[in-house]
Amino acid sequence: MTMRPFRGHGIALALLLPLLLLLSLEPQLSLGGGGDGVCELSVRRQDVIYNYSLASPTSKYPHGVLSEDGFYKVVVNDTSLWFQLCDQMIFNHDPPRCFGCQDCGGPLHCGTACSALVASNVGGYPVCTTIGRSSDLYIALIDQKYPLKGVLVKSSSFGTQDNCSLSVSIFCDSNEVRVPNSLNITGKCDYAVALRHPSGCAKVIYVNGRGWGLFGTVLMIILCFLVGYILIGTVYRFFFQGIHGAEAIPNLDFWLSLPHRAKNMLGNFARRLSGYGRDNRGSYAPVN
Known about the structure:
Cation-dependent Mannose-6-phosphate Receptor, Chain A
């Protein structure tokens, strides 16, 4: 077969150069999230790391798990609960109207200086109690045995009379958001709600050789580029240049010569190693 000059050397080199560059870099692993660490959690289970970043923006949810209204609201019987995750509340509409809001913004800005506030009917009047502050935030897994289930965010407020808290279970749901519509109360002022949100899903990182890894990912990208290049080139030559049969494959001679080239490279490498070994046998080598 007559070898034609290969015109795709530049393309092949352009595909191989990123692979060589990435392989020359030392892979690094970060166990912490970005930003200031608010509402972020990183948990390692054997060779798997689960990273949660609740406040990080996504394409569908630019505020992450935070409510775009500035607050979540749950009303059950005579109890109203307002809360915001990972930040203080903001009220552009429907602000809390209750007594006893001095430690959470005061009567004129009730709810704007804390992350969770509850109003209960006492003697016919709504009375507010601060049950969460963004400065006192705790985040953990909902289930230690199943990290992918989601996370629990707990905020608290230590008042002069009562120590109150709010626990929000954020279950992983990659398809939709379900806001809380029920409220659980334990003790005097410990509240708990649950919601489902894509931000409650962990980003999984495999370490110690599990998963694709850097090499496998880059190799797959290179293979996809090569397959796409051959496929598009074959379609173009077949339909637009009228080349049929195996000759429609672009740079066919080059692909067919690859095994021979690889064999020659391995042979040259083996000869160099054997020559290096003969030249470095040392002073105890036999002399004829």
